[in-house]
Give the backbone structure.
Amino acid sequence: MTDTPAPSGADIVGQVLDSHGVTPTERPELDITHEPYAILGLTDLIGDGTIPETYVRNGALSQIVQVSGDVLAAQENTLPLAVVDVTADALRRLLARHAYLYKTSEKKDGTIKRTPVSPSVSIAKAALSETHWPKVRPLAGVVGAPVMRPDGTVLQDPGYDDATRLYYAPVRDLARVPHLPSGADVDRARTFVLDHVLADFPWADGGSRANFVALMMTPLLRPFVGGLAPLGAVSASAPGSGKTLLTDIPSKLFGATSRPWVQDDAELRKSITATLKTSSDPVVVFDNVGEFDSVDQPTLAKLLTSAAWSDRELGSSNQIGVPNDRSWWVTGNNLSFGGDMPSRTVLVVLDPRVPNPDLRTGFTIPDLGEWLEDSTNLAELLHHLLVLARAWVVAGAPSSDRSMRNFRRWARSMAGFTEWMGVPGFMANADQLAAHDEEGAQWHAFLATWYSKYTTNPKTCVELLKSAETAWSGFGPSADDPWEGAFLTKADGSKPSARGLGKMLTGKAGRFYGEYTVRSVFDKKTKIFRYYVDRVISEAPAEREMAHA
């Protein structure tokens, strides 16, 4: 049996208009002579699902529209459709095309005259304020590449899919994926992916390669796996190592929004909101984190553990809510992390171990960047990835025990997939994130030094600061430093005040850095908090078993 390629995106654009099967002769009619009845009637008309091109997303009426223009034409493999909220003007246009709205008036002879009209903007806005549309199909988004449905089958037929609530608009021709891939299919796919496309990347370790495979498969497997996915961080030891080229692979396969890195937390929040509001791309890459920047923003940490994202729309007082269904990535040279980010990140490290890595030659694919621009090559790669995904499901979707708070389902599934695929080492480099955690290293050094000086003897913030007085001079840190550079400083390197130090300690109370954590006691007599360092050494598994034998 010969595989028939799926229709391309250009072939299905016109199908959006006919997706509900409503023809002009079947247009519903509605009398909108009186405004109150017009609002209610229009709301019911839309809610019955009789207006083609409309869907509901997060309670708002949405439509799939064709995107055209010179920019789109210049970008091969660009998704030809986008999801936008239906505005009052857009609703008036849709109704003019798909419904017959009229007002009535009485003629001199007593007969009733019907006059075709469009609803006023105020009536359209009132109707759109409804948030419950029971018979309008829910829409999760538009995808340009197949994905695995929750039941493990492959979404590869263009159009709306009830199982995933996705609209599949293929951007390239793909051979259909066999329902039961053979062993030869799997061997060819594995060889093509690992020994051809990914063969020449300078992985720092096996864990980095396995982690990238898991991250690359995430947009494809997410509807099947479900749950949240962690941040994918691609770090290189030097420029020219291939980090941008590496992120180009999922970007070209599935579609990506690339944004410059923003260190300021408030600005990063705006960037995230704008991305989720205006783009349907399943991959978002924050490119080239600055050399002196740290990936430690509370906004990003919150995003990664939130199934939905809420924020105020830029330039208005409107509050928006959108699903967080993207795969988030950052790239940079020698990335550093802080705050809650190390526990929410999967690390991929490239280390060519040679000077001028951009001058390397002798690659399996001479120019991978150019190779990825060829739609035929991308179609072949995507087909092999789909074969591997389907074969893994057919094998029972084996999982493996991996502990990753907030991302347990993703971690177990991806650990099982990479092991089944024969790529060992998934998350084996997780301990390296501690080495990239500058904030954690600073706190560990501070608490370890504090414990060595005072053990568990409680101290006030004033006493702690006094013990470090010789650590500062009028020109900055002094050479005569009893804390040997380990005392906490503010972001600008200056000494904190007693109140500031108290806030820093209170904010970290109970959080372990290595074996150390801060504890506090409240002196009821003086009304002052005192702090001490608690040291807890975990037993090794073997020692624990011996102790309980």
User: Anything to note?
Assistant: The first strand starts at residue 29 and ends at 31. The first helix runs from residue 9 to 12. Residues 9-168 form one domain. The radius of gyration is 29 Å.
